[in-house]
Amino acid sequence: MTRYIVANWKSYKTLSQAEKWIETFCSLYHPDPHVHVIIAPPAVYLAPLFQSLRKYNHSHLSLAAQDLSPYPMGSYTGAVAGDMIRNFVDYAIVGHSERRRYFHETNQEVAQKVAEAAAAEIKPILCVDLPYARAQIAALDEADMGDLVVGYCPVEAIGLDIPQSPEKIRAAVEEIQVYAPEKPIFYGGSINAANAGDCIAIEGISGLMVGTACLDAKNFAGICRAVSQP
């Protein structure tokens, strides 16, 4: 079974730093056919990094958007519509806790983003947290959930050194599976090279979402190797 690992760069890096990250990571990480690496840089770097990655010919590596507009292309100044990025990305993160907190995104707005991703044939990674997961998932239109991935990203574990306990993660997975049966579930929260192997081995977890620890390419390559271990 394929394991997934997402590198969420958040709002970091200049273009030259981003290109250097790609160069360093691709020189250190030897692709594993059972691991799919998803890199989520800032939107302005999607096109140039898409071109940079082509020369490395890594079939198990793709790009993701960190966000996208809840509207299609049109008179929405500053918005990045799904159709604008569909040629560069396979995935889009939606509903991240930082978007909800700092940009005041509602469940309805996030649901619109999931719909726009689906319309552009981009797989949405919907970030949820307990005890809100039921409402966050219920806001979606079932027609938009075909390629849905659920990212369980507990706020209490983001930006710390220790992830949630395996027992807590497993309990959360079981609850999320009630609301989104048969959908892949990724875990995000304080992932590093030391704990990635244990976290990916938790029953029901298909992938990991890495934040701060992915900003260093060498460090992220180590996390990917940890996920590759059986």
From TrEMBL:
It is an enzyme of class 5 (isomerase). Its EC number is 5.3.1.1. Keywords: Cytoplasm, Gluconeogenesis, Glycolysis, Isomerase. The keyword Isomerase applies. It comes from the Bacteria. Transmembrane segments: none annotated. GO terms for biological process: gluconeogenesis; glyceraldehyde-3-phosphate biosynthetic process; glycerol catabolic process; glycolytic process. GO terms for cellular component: cytosol. Pfam families: TIM (PF00121). CDD domains: TIM. Pathway: Carbohydrate degradation; glycolysis; D-glyceraldehyde 3-phosphate from glycerone phosphate: step 1/1; Carbohydrate biosynthesis; gluconeogenesis. The keyword Cytoplasm applies. InterPro entries: Aldolase_TIM (IPR013785), TIM_sf (IPR035990), Triosephosphate_isomerase (IPR000652). It catalyses: D-glyceraldehyde 3-phosphate = dihydroxyacetone phosphate. Belongs to the triosephosphate isomerase family. Homodimer. This is Triosephosphate isomerase. It comes from Candidatus Desulfobia pelagia. The lineage of its organism: Bacteria, Pseudomonadati, Thermodesulfobacteriota, Desulfobulbia, Desulfobulbales.
